[in-house]
Amino acid sequence: MKAMKNLVHLAILGVWAVAGVLFTVKAVFALAGFVPVLLFWGWFAALAALTSWVVAKFDSPLGALGTHGAAILVMQAVPAVLPFALVRLGLDLLAGRGLPF
Fold first, then answer.
1. 20 and 37 in contact (C-beta within 8 Å)?
2. Is the pTM of this model over 0.70?
3. Within the chain, where are the H helices?
4. Phi, psi of 59, deg, nearest 5
5. DSSP state of 60
6. Cβ atoms of residues 18 and 11 within 8 Å
7. CA–CA separation, 32 vs 97, rounded Å?
8. What is the mean pLDDT of residues 26-39?
9. In degrees to the nearest 10, what's the CA dihedral of 89, 68, 42, 94?
């Protein structure tokens, strides 16, 4: 069961990583600057660390799905004003909303 949980968690993080690579390529070739790219990858590292810590507390693949689903819901519920915008920074960058500051 733990192997399946890890596979689900890795697959979801892989989707985030592919979206990040596409964002990086778009931002670098559009000369939008390296700051949003660096901020996204820092945010992604924090997201991966936090979700990995939470997923480790569960034994089933549903725990991994629930953790990532809850993370998305929390990011959507947080207001887009500083300092709360840092929680949803990567999601906003991928959606094309730009930096909140």
1. no
2. yes
3. 2-29, 35-55, 61-77, 89-94
4. -110, -10
5. S
6. no
7. 13
8. 79
9. -40
